[in-house]
Amino acid sequence: MKIAKFAFGLICLTILASNIVTMSRWSEARGVYDDICYLRQAHLFQRLGIGGFNTNTALDDDGYFEGKLKEIAFDEWQDQSRWPCHNPMPGGKLVLQYPPGTGFLLALFPEGRQVAPLYIAASLIVCGLALFGIFMAPTLTSTVGAGLFGALAIYLMINPAKASYSIAPTMAVCALAGFLTALWLIRDKRSVLLLALIGLLLGASVSFRLPNALLVAGYCLFLAGAFTWSRTVSSFVQGLAFGIGVLVGMIPTLVAHAINAGSPFATTYGSVDAIPPGFDLAVLGQYLRDMQFVLIVLAIGSTAWLFFDGKQRARQVALVVAGNLAVNLVFFLSHPIFTPYYIVPITMLSLWTVSFAWLMQAETAREAVVPAGLEALPR
After folding, report:
1. Which of 1, 66, 99, 140 is the most buried (most CB within 10 A)?
2. Residues of the domain holding 92
3. DSSP label at 30?
4. pLDDT at 367
5. Residue 113 lies in a domain
6. Is the per-residue pLDDT at 358 higher than 60?
7. Is 238 inside a domain boundary?
8. Rounded (5°) CA angle 149-193-169
9. Can you give the pLDDT at residue 161?
10. What is the pLDDT of residues 91-128, one digit of tens each?
């Protein structure tokens, strides 16, 4: 089994090294509007500090964004009303539509070399958790499973994560939250602080993508159900701790909305983005032909397997994941627009959670057997 652990660890590190080489060659002017808009937010943070929460186009008096538009040959670079990713707000100002988290993380790196370091840092987190899963696996079967999933997770940091800068940090958060969720439900003592940390991470992920707010759905359903069933102070405190964690994590987004849209609960997205739900067979067909469909099948299949084959605690993990999957899949599959990364966050959060729950359950079972065997040994 040690050979298998070493082999899969080496495979994961090889994929990581290949990813780093590829990421280091990426251009920050590939012609994608979202890219330069995230970079404008980063520039504002580097230039104005906390004042970078204000994304009013009037602050582009140094010509930074105009220069970025020229780099990608945007014809109407002089007309701010035509700038991509910007929407009019009350008072006549134009602001960025995106939450501030991705831009803030990009601002941590030197201008001109921001994207590659962000992706490399996120990939290191994902790889670290993948290696941890491999080396904590107690059996050959679990080692192979953890190794295959780890290799897949690291590969996905190139494709489809490259489609949007917001996906890289989201993938890292999903990996961390998946590990902590399994730890919270599988271990004997359920820590309120650990649950609050999960809420904090998922709340903070909203600062990368607003739809990440849906990642808390399964947790809310599970905690609400637990309180309704038991009506105990402990279950109430757990729900409260999770809610506070989510709220604290969302503070940067709420602040950005208050500054740019006039209210923490207003949106900086325009009316053109408010697309009503509706199942579209053409869109569903695109998902069927995309890598996301494979991830959906893996997430649903592994969750069902954990529920029917796992012990009581593992089944509770499966319930959280199932609720999360149901809410997110209904939302995104009924959203009549296809992108190559919409469903990636929920599927990866689900797979990370199920993977670590499986590994921790197997490890816990082994630890329970060893003392019983030791008791039979001669003293």
Report:
1. 99
2. 29-106
3. S
4. 58
5. no
6. yes
7. yes
8. 40
9. 93
10. 889 999 999 999 999 999 999 899 999 999 999 999 99
In the chain, the number of structural domains is 2
CA atoms within 13 A on the CB side of 62: 6
Q: Do residue 263 and residue 340 come from a single domain?
A: yes
State the sign of the Cα–Cα–Cα–Cα dihedral 49, 55, 57, 63: positive
Rounded distance between C-alpha atoms, residue 219 and residue 323, angstroms: 8
d(CA 275, CA 278): 9
- Checking if the pLDDT of 277 tops 80, the result is no
The tens digit of pLDDT for each residue in 174-206 reads 999 999 999 999 987 788 999 999 999 999 999
Sheet strands (E) in the chain: 86-88, 94-96
Helices (H), ranges, 140-263: 140-155, 167-186, 192-205, 217-230, 233-249, 251-260
**Total residue length of the chain:** 379
Q: At what angle do helices 233-249 and 217-230 cross, to 10 degrees?
A: 160
**Same domain, yes or no: 102 and 211:** no
Q: What is the pLDDT of residue 372?
A: 44
Q: How many CB atoms lie within 10 A of CB 308?
A: 9
Q: Quick one: tokens of 289?
A: 């032909």
Query: Which of helix, strand or coil describes residue 96?
Result: strand
* pLDDT at residue 368, rounded to an integer: 53
